[in-house]
Write a structure and sequence with these properties.
The complex is a heterodimer of chains A (511) and B (472). Chain A is of the alpha/beta class and 511 residues long. Helices cover 59% and strands 9% of the residues of chain A. In chain A, a hairpin with a 5-residue loop joins strand 3 (357-358) and strand 4 (364-365). In chain A, helix 9 runs antiparallel to helix 13 and helix 16 packs parallel to helix 17. The longest helix of chain A has 51 residues, at 187-237. The relative contact order of chain A is 0.10. Helix content of chain B is 54%, strand content 10%. Chain B is built from 17 helices and eleven strands. In chain B, helix 8 packs antiparallel against helix 14 (386-402). Classes of the chains: A alpha/beta (511), B alpha/beta (472).
Chain lengths: 511, 472
C-alpha cells in the first residue's frame, strides 16, 4: 500500500509543477525510456510521441517554454513515467540514494564517535596527548584534501599524470575483459553485449561529470557526520569527567608548539579560551611515563576548547563547504544538460515535428495540427548531405523529407564513398569549411549495406570534421519490407554503439 | 599447418554466405550462420582427416584501407611476406581486426575461396577485396552464392574472372552431394600440387556416401523386419469380461507404441546418419493417432494405391495358399493357392486404403488351444499396406535429409505433410515402383511376416532399396 502511494507520488511529482527542474532520477528514466524505444518501429514512436506532445505537453506549456527543450523533454519523461507499468530506474535510484545517504551519515557518526572515544580513553598514567588527538582526527582528512588538491593542480598545470586514471583504468580493464569474453559469444549475443558496453560508455561521455558530484556529496556527508560525532563526543565527556590534555613530541620545542597553536587558532581568536597560552603550553609538556598529576590541572584543561574549535573549523566547516560546493555543482551540471545528443534530438523531432507518414505511393502525408503552440526545432537551418555514391534517390525527394521531418534546408549534396574515408578528403575538407554555418550533416546510406568498420571510420571522420555545431545524422534509405528494415536499423544502431559514434539514425522508406 | 594438406581460407565480404558454404562443404551444421552481418569474428578450422582443411574466416571490414598497405605485394618475390608484415603491424589495431584474422590462414599457405552473394550488386569495396586476394598470389577460386532471387551473377562473373583461377556458382542452401563433389573437383584443378589429395578426397567422400546409403538401407530393412514381426504377449490377469477387454486395449496400446517408437528410432538414425541436428521427427508417442504411423492421415498419404493393394493382397493370399498346397503335397491341386489369391485380393479391395484394426488374440476357444490357454497376444500386424507405409515414411525422412543443406538453420519437423512432400520430391515413393519391384518386395514382406526370411531375401530387398535411395 505504502509502495503504491509512493509510486503514485513519484509518477505525479513532475506533472504537479509546470517545469520542474531535472534530477538525476529524471535523467535515468529519460535514458531508460529512450533505450526501450529502440525496439519499437519508427512510425509507432512518431505517432506516440507526437500524441503525447499534442495532448499532454502542449496544453501545459507557455509560449516561451514551448521552445524550451529541457522543459518539453522533462514533461515527456513525466508523461511516460505516468504510463509506465513497471518500476523505472529513477525510482530505484531515489531509494538507493536515500539508503546510501543514510549509510554515509551512520558510518560517519560511528567512525567519528568510535575514534574519539578511543582517543579520550584515559589510562591515568599520562595526560591525553593533544597533538595525537589533532593528528588522528584532522590528519587523515587533510592528507586526503591535500592529495586531491595536488592532483587537481597537476591536472591543470604539468599534466604529468594525465593518463593516470586508476578508476578509469580499472573500468577500462573490466570493459576489455567483458569485450574479450564477448568474443567467445556468438552472433547476436556478442553484438548485444558489445553494443551495451558501447552505449554505457557513450552515456558516460554525455553525463560523465554528473556522476562525479553525487559521489562527492556522499563522501562529504560522511565526513560531516564524522566531524559532528567527534565534536559531540568531546562535549559529551565534559559533564562526566575532566579532560586533561598535555603534549609531548620529538618534533619541536615548546615555544615552536605554542607558536603553531597560536597560528592554528587565528580563525577563532575572537572566541573565549581560543587556545592555551604560551605558559600553559610550556606547563603541559610531559615526558613519556610522566603522571598527569605532576602537571598543573588548569593548564591541562585549557587544551580541550582549542581542540574543539580546531575540529569544528578545520574539519566540520571545511567539509560543510565541500558539501555545499558538491551540491551546487551537482545542481549546475543538471541545469547545464542540453539534451542535444542523438537520441534526444530524435525524440525532440518526434515531439516537435508534424506526424509525417509515407504512403505506399511515396507521397508524404502531413496532418494538420491545430490548437497546439508552435514548437520550433532549435536546430532548424541548412544542412549538407553526404550521399553514398551508390544511392540513386532523386535529390528533390530527399530535400522534401529533410525539410518536413528535420526542418533542414538541403544545401549542398556531395557524393561520397562511405566505406573509404581516404577517398573522401575533398568532401571532408568542404564539410570542415562549411560546418559552422550548418544545422545538420546528413550521411545517406542504403539500409541494405552491411554495417562494417570501414563505414564506422568514415562516420567518425565526418563527426570530427563537422565539429560541435551541426548535428550529424545517418539517414538509412530503405525500400524493403518494414520487418527487414527494422532489423537493418538494429544492426546499424549496434554498429554506432559499438564504435561509440554519437550520431542520430533515421530511416527513409522510398519506393 | 601441414603443407601437404590442401588448405583453403573461405573469405569474402561480410554477410555474403561464407559460413553457409563452409557448413555445406564440411557437412557441419554446427557452424554459426546467421543473417546478422559479422557473425564470424574468429577463423574456425574444419577438416576431413588429412585430406583437406577449410577455414571459415571473418568478413572483410576495411578492405579499401588495407589495400593501400598491401599493394607492395605485387612487387616482391614473396607476396605473403607483405601480408605477414601487415598482420604484425596491425596486431593491436581494431580497424584491421577482421583483415588480420582472415589473412592468418592465407599467410600460412592456404588457398583462397572467395565467396560472393550473386543476389547483391558488386560494389567498389568488393573490387578492393578481389585485388587484395590477387596480391596474395595464392590459388584462388571464386564462388557465387545466392541468398535471394535478385540476380547479379553475370556482372559478378565478369569481374571475378579477372582475379580468380576459376569461378563457380554454388548455392550453399540447396547444394546436393553431387554439387559438393563437383566443387571439390574444381578445387583440385586450381593447384596441381593439391590434385592427388583432393582427388583422393573426392574418392573418399564418394565411398563414404555409398557407405552411408548402405547404412540407411540397413536401418530401413531392420526396422521393417522388427515392425512386421513384432508381437506383444501378456498373461491374462482376470477372466472377467470387462477386465479382459481393458487388458486387451492396454496390450494393443503397448503394441502400437512399440511400433511407433521403433519407427521413430529408425528415422532418428537416418537423420543422424546424414549429420543433421536441426531436423526432428514429427511423431511423438502422444500423437500416434494424429500424425503418427497409425493415424488415418498417414494411411491415406502413404503406401500403395487401392489397385496396387489388390494385387499385393492377392500375392499375400496366394503365398498362404501355396503353403497349404505344399502341406498337402499337391493333392489339393492348387485350389488353396487360387482361393487364397481371391481372398487376399478381395479383402484388399474391400478395405482399400483404410487402416485395418489391430487384432488382439484373446484366450478361449480356438485361440486358447493355440496359445496355451492363458495368454493374450497382439501382432504381428497383418495389414497389407503396413510395410509399404513404413517404407514410404522412411523414404520421406531420407528425402528430407539427403539433399538438405547443412547451411540451413531452420528447424524442420518431419510431420506427415513434410514426409509426404519429401517422399514425392525424391521420386522414390513405393506407389511409383514397377509391378515387378512391388511383387518382389511383397513376397519378401510375406516371408518376413512368416519369419522365413532368408539371407538372399535380405540381399534382394537391400539391392532394391539401395537402387531407390541412389535414385533419390
Amino acid at each position: 500500500m505504502a509502495d503504491t502511494a509512493r509510486r503514485a507520488a513519484y509518477q505525479l511529482r513532475a506533472v504537479s509543477r509546470p517545469t520542474p527542474p531535472w534530477k538525476i532520477s529524471d535523467v535515468l528514466d529519460f535514458e531508460f525510456l529512450l533505450a526501450g524505444d529502440d525496439a519499437l518501429p519508427a512510425e509507432e514512436l512518431r505517432e506516440r510521441d507526437r500524441a503525447i506532445f499534442v495532448e499532454k505537453i502542449a496544453p501545459t506549456l507557455s509560449q516561451e517554454s514551448a521552445d524550451d527543450r529541457r522543459a518539453v523533454l522533462r514533461a515527456w519523461v513525466a508523461e511516460r513515467r505516468r504510463r509506465a507499468t513497471d518500476e523505472l530506474p529513477g525510482e530505484q535510484f531515489i531509494t538507493g540514494w536515500q539508503t546510501l545517504l543514510t549509510l554515509a551519515v551512520l558510518g560517519g557518526l560511528l567512525l567519528g564517535g568510535g575514534l574519539t572515544m578511543q582517543l579520550l580513553r584515559y589510562s591515568g598514567a599520562e595526560p591525553l596527548n593533544a597533538l595525537v588527538f589533532l593528528a588522528s582526527t584532522l590528519g587523515p582528512q587533510w592528507l586526503l584534501i591535500f592529495a586531491a588538491l595536488l592532483f587537481w593542480i597537476e591536472r591543470r598545470t604539468t599534466r604529468f599524470l594525465t593518463d593516470w586514471r586508476p578508476l578509469r583504468a580499472l573500468l577500462a580493464g573490466l570493459v576489455a575483459l567483458f569485450g574479450a569474453g564477448a568474443r567467445r559469444l556468438h552472433g547476436e549475443s556478442r553484438v548485444r553485449l558489445q553494443a551495451a558496453i558501447g552505449r554505457l560508455a557513450g552515456k558516460s561521455e554525455i553525463y560523465g561529470s554528473m556522476a562525479t558530484w553525487p559521489l562527492l556529496v556522499v563522501t562529504q556527508i560522511f565526513a560531516v557526520s564524522f566531524n559532528v560525532a567527534i565534536l559531540a563526543m568531546l562535549l559529551a565527556q565534559l559533564p562526566a569527567r575532566e579532560l586533561r590534555f598535555g603534549w609531548q613530541t620529538t618534533w619541536g620545542a615548546p615555544e615552536q608548539v605554542a607558536r603553531v597553536v597560536g597560528v592554528l587558532a587565528a580563525p577563532w581568536a575572537w572566541a573565549p579560551n581560543s587556545h592555551p597560552s604560551t605558559q600553559e603550553v610550556f606547563d603541559t609538556k610531559y615526558a613519556p611515563g610522566q603522571a598527569h598529576k605532576t602537571l598543573p590541572g588548569a593548564a591541562m584543561r585549557a587544551w580541550w576548547p582549542f581542540l574543539f574549535y580546531a575540529v569544528a573549523c578545520y574539519g566540520l566547516v571545511v567539509r560543510v563547504a565541500f558539501l555545499i560546493l558538491a551540491a551546487v555543482k551537482m545542481r549546475r551540471s543538471l541545469a547545464a544538460l542540453t539534451f542535444n545528443h542523438a537520441d534526444a534530438n530524435a525524440l525532440w523531432r518526434r515531439l516537435s515535428g508534424p506526424s509525417v507518414t509515407t504512403q505506399p505511393t511515396g507521397n508524404l502525408q502531413v496532418p494538420e495540427v491545430t490548437n497546439v503552440p508552435p514548437i520550433h526545432s532549435g536546430v532548424a537551418g541548412d544542412c549538407l548531405a553526404l550521399v553514398a555514391d551508390e544511392v540513386a534517390q532523386p535529390v528533390q525527394e530527399m530535400a522534401a523529407e529533410l525539410a518536413s521531418r528535420f526542418r533542414w534546408r538541403l544545401g549542398e549534396t556531395l557524393p561520397v564513398k562511405i566505406d573509404n574515408r581516404r577517398a573522401c578528403a575533398d568532401q571532408l575538407a568542404r564539410l570542415r569549411e562549411t560546418a559552422p554555418s550548418l544545422a545538420g550533416v546528413v550521411i545517406t546510406i542504403p539500409a541494405a549495406r552491411d554495417p562494417i568498420v570501414a563505414i564506422a571510420l568514415f562516420i567518425r571522420e565526418v563527426i570530427s570534421a563537422a565539429g560541435a555545431k551541426p548535428e550529424v545524422l545517418i539517414l538509412l534509405l530503405a525500400d524493403k519490407s518494414q520487418t527487414e528494415t527494422a532489423l537493418r536499423v538494429k544492426y546499424w544502431r549496434d554498429l554506432l554503439a559499438i564504435h561509440r559514434l554519437h550520431v542520430g539514425l533515421e530511416t527513409l522508406c522510398h519506393k | 599447418m601441414n603443407s601437404d594438406t590442401p588448405t583453403f581460407a573461405v573469405v569474402g565480404a561480410v554477410n555474403h554466405g561464407k559460413s553457409s558454404v563452409v557448413s555445406t562443404l564440411a557437412e557441419d551444421d554446427s557452424v554459426h550462420v546467421s543473417a546478422m552481418p559479422g557473425e564470424t569474428i574468429e577463423a574456425q578450422r574444419f577438416s576431413l582427416g588429412d585430406l583437406f582443411v577449410f577455414y571459415d574466416t571473418p568478413g572483410f571490414q576495411n578492405a579499401p584501407e588495407a589495400i593501400d598497405e598491401l599493394r607492395g605485394a605485387t612487387q616482391v618475390n614473396d607476396p605473403l611476406a607483405v601480408f605477414r608484415e601487415f598482420i604484425a603491424r596491425h596486431r593491436d589495431a581494431t580497424e584491421f581486426d577482421a583483415e588480420r584474422r582472415l589473412f592468418a590462414p592465407i599467410v600460412e599457405g592456404a588457398g583462397v575461396i572467395y565467396i560472393v552473394d550473386g543476389s547483391r550488386p558488386a560494389l567498389e569495396i568488393n573490387l578492393a577485396e578481389m585485388e587484395i586476394l590477387r596480391f596474395t598470389g595464392q590459388p584462388r577460386l571464386a564462388i557465387i552464392n545466392r541468398t535471394s532471387a535478385d540476380d547479379h551473377v553475370q556482372d559478378w562473373k565478369r569481374r571475378l574472372g579477372q582475379h580468380f583461377n576459376a569461378v563457380r556458382e554454388f548455392n550453399a542452401h540447396a547444394a546436393t552431394f553431387a554439387d559438393r563433389i563437383d566443387l571439390l573437383e574444381t578445387l583440385a584443378g586450381i593447384e596441381q600440387s593439391w590434385k592427388p589429395k583432393l582427388t583422393r578426397a573426392v574418392q573418399v567422400l564418394r565411398a563414404e556416401w555409398d557407405s552411408r546409403l548402405s547404412d540407411c538401407v540397413e536401418i530401413i530393412v531392420q526396422m521393417l523386419v522388427h515392425c512386421l514381426t513384432h508381437t506383444e504377449t501378456q498373461l491374462l490377469k482376470s477372466d472377467a469380461e470387462r477386465a479382459r477387454k481393458l487388458q486387451a486395449a492396454d496390450l494393443k496400446g503397448a503394441f502400437e507404441k512399440w511400433i511407433s517408437n521403433r519407427e521413430a528410432r529408425a528415422h532418428r538414425d537416418i537423420i543422424s546418419l546424414f549429420r543433421h541436428r536441426h531436423v526432428k521427427t514429427g511423431a511423438s508417442s502422444d500423437a500416434l493417432f494424429d500424425s503418427g504411423i497409425f493415424s488415418d492421415e498417414t494411411w491415406r498419404a502413404f503406401g500403395l494405391s487401392g489397385g496396387q493393394l489388390v494385387a499385393a493382397g492377392a500375392i499375400t493370399g496366394a503365398a498362404g495358399g501355396v503353403v497349404w498346397d505344399l502341406v498337402t503335397a499337391g493333392h489339393s491341386i492348387g485350389i488353396p493357392t487360387f482361393v487364397g489369391t481371391g481372398i487376399g485380393a478381395a479383402s484388399a479391395f474391400i478395405l482399400g486404403k483404410s487402416r485395418p484394426e489391430i487384432d488382439v488374440k484373446l484366450p478361449g476357444g480356438f485361440g486358447a488351444w493355440k496359445l496355451g490357454g492363458r495368454s493374450m497376444k497382439v501382432g504381428p500386424y497383418k495389414a497389407d499396406n503396413f510395410p509399404w507405409i513404413l517404407l514410404d515414411r522412411a523414404f520421406g525422412v531420407f528425402g528430407s535429409v539427403v539433399n538438405r543443406s547443412h547451411a540451413r538453420r531452420d528447424q524442420a519437423t518431419l510431420d506427415t505433410a513434410a514426409l509426404q512432400s519429401a517422399m514425392t520430391e525424391s521420386g522414390i515413393a513405393t506407389a511409383n515402383w514397377s509391378g515387378e519391384e512391388r511383387r518382389t518386395a511383397q513376397k519378401i514382406f510375406a516371408r518376413i511376416r512368416q519369419d522365413k526370411i532368408t539371407p538372399e531375401d535380405r540381399d534382394t530387398l537391400r539391392s532394391l532399396l539401395l537402387a531407390k535411395l541412389v535414385k533419390g
